[in-house]
Design brief:
Strand order of the largest sheet of chain B: 1-4
Order of helices and strands of chain A: HHHHHHHHHHHHHHH
Oligomer: heterodimer
Number of strands of chain A: 0
Shape of chain A: globular
Low-confidence stretches of chain A: none
CATH superfamily of one domain in chain B: MetI-like
Structural class of chain B: mainly alpha
Strand content of chain B: 5-15%
Mean pLDDT of chain A: 87
Subcellular location (chain B): Cell membrane
Largest sheet of chain A: none
Number of helices of chain B: 15
Number of strands of chain B: 4
Radius of gyration of chain B: 27 Å
Organism (chain B): Ascidiaceihabitans donghaensis
CATH class of one domain in chain B: Mainly Alpha
Shape of chain B: globular
Helix content of chain B: over 70%
Strand content of chain A: under 5%
GO biological process, one term (chain B): transmembrane transport
InterPro entries (chain B): MetI-like, MetI-like_sf
Protein name (chain B): Inner membrane ABC transporter permease protein YcjO
Chain lengths: 293, 342
Amino acid sequence: MSSKATQQPTYMRVLVYAFVAFWLVIAAFPFLWTLWGSFKVELDFFSIADWTNALTGERTQEVHGSAFTGDGYEGAWVQEKFWKAVLNTFIVCFFVVTISLTFGTLGGYALSRSGHNYTFWLLMAALIARAMPQITLVSGYLLPFFEWNLWGYLPTSIIVLVAINQPFTLWMLHSFFQKIPKDLDESAKVDGCTQFQAFRHAIMPVMWPGVITTGLFSFLLAYNDFAVTTMLLSKENQTMVPKIASFLGTTQTEGNVMFAVAAVVSATIPLFILVMFFQRQIVSGLTAGAVKG
Amino acid sequence: MKHKTFFWFFLPTGLAMLLFIALPIVSVVLQSLFVEHEAVLAVVENCGPFGCKQETTIDQSATEALRAASPLGQFAGLDIYFNRGHLATAEVADAWRTRSGLGSFLATINNLPFYRAMSFTLVYTFTVTPLLIMLGFAIAVGVNSLHRHLKGLVIFFSLLPMIVTPLIGSLILFWMIDSRGILGSAIQWLADDPTLSLKASTGLTWAMLIVYGVWHSAPFAFVVFYAGLQTLPKDTLESAMIDGASRWEQIRYVVIPHLMPLVTFVMLIQLMDNFRVLEPIVGFSAEAHATSLSWIILNDLGGETRLLSSAAATSVLTIIGVSILLSPVLVRTWRDFHSKAE
């Protein structure tokens, strides 16, 4: 957009820059504010007297002798055992991503290479499954899981999250595999490979960009899930999100809101890092389904 | 690909979806037709020095045995669907008979838990979706005209509200709009009313949740539209300019038609996602003023006594709602598919 005809008049430019700057503030300010505030005491973070206290940390200085304190973090991580929830979250995410990518690549590859009618119906069924609110599925799991004593354990939640992930993973990998030329595995088959060998030797080496992007979204789904992990995990096995939700009930009344604030900031940081390194993949993944139409 | 090979490739994912998506739906439908067993009562005669008394107690072992024998409970047919907690047909009919006007009738209906949740869910879905599409479009057009080096930075920060866990995002905003938080104080100052609290009024709570919804999902629309803008046909745009189209006319007649398929895509995804709104209500502790269908299910499941049947009935009603939302898309895809096949 650099040709002379498309250049904008100055007032237009100013308007556009102002609008984008405004949006940036809306998008980023809440995170920076909460990060800053998480190192303060509660009376500064929720300041009745003067809102600038949250910036300068006057009360924090009175209590701790410095404008910053790690008390919230210590309370959350040590006293409330948030580290255990962090560990559980990463166990869940790791297994959800690996298992759903294994299942998804096999299924997505098959869907992209089979010309039969039923592939269309399977993709439609996956779309309908994607639309089901997770909490309705959860209400279907509870009774059988109680009956068979499966409730409360990490593996149960992992397999449930894998299944809930599948419709989306299938759609995404299906569209990635369609972009890989069919000649590649066809010629491998002509050379005497079975379908699986063709997949193993001809497709697998070139499928990684698509798999990484899909894996990112599987990770986000597992990491951000609320309904499944809250309802299906026992108190000892809680991951981060249900742990934070449980902070709301108990610690808020005990005056330990700062534990929750610290936990929230701790849980946001991995996502920050993720966006920083994988911004391009996230953008391409979001648009993969869309631009194709 | 042969049917047999396809079958083996598709088996793991197919099995996972069958066991954990299709079967739970069957399980939900079944559960919604049964009610929990009532406790078995036993009359025991207690004889003491002052004569005999008859006492009614719960026979724990018999109750346990009954629950173990048929965990689903007693068959209740469609009773649960029509009781006060769900469609409340009797209460609605009663309210209609004794109405003094349409307003009072609606007010009565709005006190019934299911209709209360339904009204918020629908209002939320149908205000958030168009608003986020408009905001996303505006940001995309704005960012697209920025300098190349700035774009990456802007996209990074723009992604944050969408990527962050919904519960966490809503908590962060909730703490800021607390009457002692920065936004809360700012609003009090602007309205010149030191007692103003967003949490205390139903209207403001709804507005707050809607603002959160737009904030959370606008980046998705932005990214999709931004990608669409990269494929904008430059020739068409330039010829429109030569024909004397103003900036606004270029957007109206060239850019928007080009992005229309993407708008449909974003709308479909967002209608599905907004219909199941749950986390913001938990994060904002807004249940006193706004409940959604997903929230009543969560509430039924999470209590001391898990009301599985009640949750199941609401789930079935929610699934029916989702199917109604989705049906135009499905019908269209089905038609496309058939016209291609012929």
